[in-house]
Amino acid sequence: MKNLTNKYTVGAIASIPFFLLTGIFMIWPALTIVFKTFITEEGLRFDSIGRAITGTYQDSFWLSIQLSFVSAVIGGIAGLYLALLVGRLKPTSRIRILTQSWSAVASQMGGVPLAFAFLSLLGTQGLLTRILNDLGLNIMDAGFSLSSFWGWVVVYCYFQIPLMFLIVSPAMSAMKPAWLEGATSLGASTAVYWRRIGFPILSPVLLTGLLLLFVNSFSAYATVYALSSGAGQLVPLQIRFILQGNVITGQADLGYALVTVSMALLLVAMVSITLLQRKFARWADK
Amino acid sequence: MNLKKLIFNAIAVSFAAMLMAYFFFPLLTMGRFAFQVTPVIFLTWDNLLADWNFDSLVRGFTNPRVHQSAAITAGLTVLTIAITFVALLPIAIYAETMAPKLKPIISAITLLPWIVPPVALVVGVAATFRPLAPWFLNNPLSLSFFYAVWMLPFTYRAIEGQLRMIDVRTLMEAAQSLGASWFKFAFAIVLPNLRNALAVSSLLIIAAVTGEYTFAALMLKQSFPVYLIDLQSEDVRAGYALSLAVIFLTALLLTYVSLRLNKRGQTIKMIGV
Amino acid sequence: MSQVELVAVTKRFGSETAVDQLSLVVPEGKLVSFLGPSGCGKTTVLRMIAGFLNPDEGQILVDGVRIHNTPAAERGFGMVFQSYSLFPNMTVAQNVAFPLQIRKVGKQQIAKRVAELLEMIGIPQQRDKYPDQLSGGQQQRVALARAIAAEPKLLLLDEPLSALDATVREQLRGEIKRLQQESGITTLFVTHDQQEALSISDYVAVMSAGKIAQFATPIDLYRSPVSEFVASFVGSTNRVKVNRKSGSTWVAGSLKFDGPIAGNEAWAYLRPEEIEVIATAEGNSKVVGLTFLGSQVRYEVETLASDEIVLVDLPAGKALDFAVGDRVSLSSGRKDPLILPIG
């Protein structure tokens, strides 16, 4: 090969595989969905969006948003507290390293194995269910079920908590000790430090974490599918339900609309995250 | 003052204990279900330790459909890794050395997979590939392209992170002053130095692909995770046993990855933001 | 304006003793530097005074009162760190106001004091800027203002200038001295830069391996070091072998000094500027090298008797008299340099 140091030639050749991959296998399908939501056989229509956010689908969105929000908040708080505790340990401490490793594993867990695990613990045939039953606490009668909202929350936290931990931990390490020492030498108690300096500085990262947890939960499909055997009103399940019969029933554009609305929601979340990340980077690098 | 500290410590310890229980009990009961034949209803304190065996695991491993689906998943993993490297490495090195302004664009694109979740992507694929090139989708290995895209938030950041650390710009200027072309520089100099990031990316892909259910199932492909849930209707215990095995192996893999990344106690971001 | 006293303070980290039975009295209203190489324990001492570390043995007293039970937040000292410690989420004015707000000072008073301080350190126009918009020197000025805002009893400075450029460093150290003299706050200054320590301190405590090697004014430290370590750490030193001629007279070639009455062999420590050179054809030394340093020329002179190389600094004017290879003879106007017997 000749000495190809021309900036634009090299750039063009180097970029082709990447843009081909992302263009064909993500951008094209995604844009097609949006396109088809509005441009049907009858021309430019906006009513499919309307149908996607009313009636049962409105309930679905609401349910998905609620589940995502609740699991994000609970997972977020628990993950944050864990990061706070572990952040105090020395970087080489075994507990700290183990927690980081376990979080990497648990945050990727989901879908079928996770559902199985919880079914064996808290399902109708679950061991813990049986133990509690023997102790007189029948959780089934009390309304608890892994195919219900709070059951899903309990299971989702399994990957939400570690995910929040992984997001917050690096930020914790980036907090300069001179900030705390400076504040202390000036007379501030630990509480005052956190209230006026610690949390304000961490807030972009915390918000990023909550948003990411929200995105993560909203998109989750396999876990809840396995827990509820396909039933359930969450948006991903609804999308799938429509997809199964889309061509036949002629509800294709509704399916597209559901996806478009979901993507819009997720887009807002991701843009917010990017902006927040920049804000924290400004402060932490100095 | 000391009372306050005591209370804080007590809360911290109980929190840690609860968390540990929460994370490990489900795995324990999963193991119990897989390896102890006695159903939950018949359990008493006496027969707690009876009837434990690994038959379910053996059945799982000797099931030919398991082998088939595992082979598919193995193929998917290898192909995904290959596609990822071919797509990412050239542009990542190029951007880092000669076009830093390109980086935000690449970064933004690699975050798109989170806006287009697997469920959504399936719908899109149905609308685009099915009408135009159905033959492509017939091969289960076609999933690997989508998997490569799906893993971009993680793989791109692992590679970009290491490129930054090894100061590629200076290396490039040195290489150019010695007469190397850009491509030679990329292959002979940068690549060998990226071993860490490449290893991490590969392991992340392995862990992710061996657990991916949604996309494969909706595209009607019998990858290993998909078959596992089918197995549930045939042989529940075997299904559970295999799932546990997958969790265990993934845990080992990811532990290794995060230990590599967190060498000497430095916390490096593992998630893709 | 407070007096600080350290009594036999000791601090260990594992098997290492960072501070070893250190005793010192810091007079009130003075600027005292802790000078030494890295690892000598100077920062450890400062952090114990600040309250971030507890001594394993010994006492620390401020105005006669033991402070080891007082938590760091309640000691009322101001501290400036080497790495910028300004709170990134607050403006300059907010940073400086922070200690006053903690002490529940009224809003109007805070505003007045902040304006006053910013004026004092020379950056009133930056009041609404954020730390990441300021230069290193500006940030440290703000850190200083913040540290003295609440009129602390002590000001503790932990290598505050080490991370700055040379010109800024010189400028800022002059300002620190000025500030200290105007406010009269007892100030402890940790540094590894001897020029810094000598130029602004009232007293310097030279430290090595956890102990104080010498505590003296800069002039005394330079002119009359008490050990080889101090002599060589502060400024350049020549170590010349001398023999006792008789009584308290010690000689080396043409050099003659007063020293102790016992021993026969010793090391005499002389500064390069304390030695003079005369061109003599039969001189017992020879010029073997010279380095032009601007206002001075540094000569390397080899004493033919003992093959030692002696560094001699001469003002640039005089220097033109000598060239490499010239035979010279050395003499010194110093009568009583540091002489340490060997063995």
Explain what this protein looks like in three dimensions.
The complex is a heterotrimer of chains A (286), B (273) and C (343). With 286 residues, chain A is mostly helical. Chain A folds into 2 domains: 1-45, no CATH class; 48-285, Orthogonal Bundle (MetI-like fold). Helices cover 79% and strands 1% of the residues of chain A. Chain A has 13 helices and 2 strands. A two-stranded antiparallel sheet of chain A has the order 1-2. In chain A, β1 (39-40) and β2 form a beta hairpin. Chain A starts with 6 loop residues before the first helix and ends with a helix. Chain B is mostly helical and 273 residues long. Chain B folds into 2 domains: 1-53; 66-265, MetI-like fold (Orthogonal Bundle). Chain B is built from 14 helices and no strands. In chain B, α3 packs antiparallel against α13 (224-234). Chain C folds into 2 domains: 4-232, P-loop containing nucleotide triphosphate hydrolases (Rossmann fold); 236-341, Beta Barrel (OB fold (Dihydrolipoamide Acetyltransferase, E2P)). Helices cover 26% and strands 36% of the residues of chain C. Chain C contains 9 helices and 20 strands. Chain C has helices at 42-50, 92-102, 107-120, 136-148, 166-183, 194-200, 218-223, 228-233, 316-319, and strands spanning 4-13, 16-26, 31-35, 57-62, 65-66, 77-80, 154-158, 186-191, 203-208, 211-216, 238-246, 249-252, 255-258, 265-270, 275-279, 285-292, 296-303, 308-315, 327-332, 338-341. In chain C, α2 (92-102) runs parallel beside α4. The radius of gyration of chain C is 25 Å and the shape is elongated. The model of chain C has no long low-confidence stretch (mean pLDDT 89). Chains A and B meet through α1, α3, α4, α5 and α6 of A and α1, α3, α4, α5 and α7 of B.
Mind sketching the topology for me?
The complex is a heterotrimer of chains A (286), B (273) and C (343).
Chain A: H1 7-38, E1 39-40, E2 43-44, H2 47-52, H3 55-87, H4 94-108, H5 111-122, H6 127-134, H7 149-174, H8 177-185, H9 190-219, H10 222-228, H11 235-244, H12 246-249, H13 252-285
Chain B: H1 2-35, H2 55-62, H3 64-98, H4 102-111, H5 118-132, H6 134-138, H7 143-150, H8 152-165, H9 168-177, H10 182-193, H11 195-209, H12 214-218, H13 224-234, H14 236-261
Helix pairs in contact in B: 1-14, 2-14, 3-7, 3-8, 3-11, 3-13, 8-11, 9-10, 11-14, 13-14
Chain C: E1 4-13, E2 16-26, E3 31-35, H1 42-50, E4 57-62, E5 65-66, E6 77-80, H2 92-102, H3 107-120, H4 136-148, E7 154-158, H5 166-183, E8 186-191, H6 194-200, E9 203-208, E10 211-216, H7 218-223, H8 228-233, E11 238-246, E12 249-252, E13 255-258, E14 265-270, E15 275-279, E16 285-292, E17 296-303, E18 308-315, H9 316-319, E19 327-332, E20 338-341
Parallel strand pairs in C: 3-8, 3-9, 6-7, 7-8
Antiparallel strand pairs in C: 1-2, 1-4, 4-5, 9-10, 11-12, 11-14, 12-13, 14-20, 15-19, 16-17, 16-19, 17-18
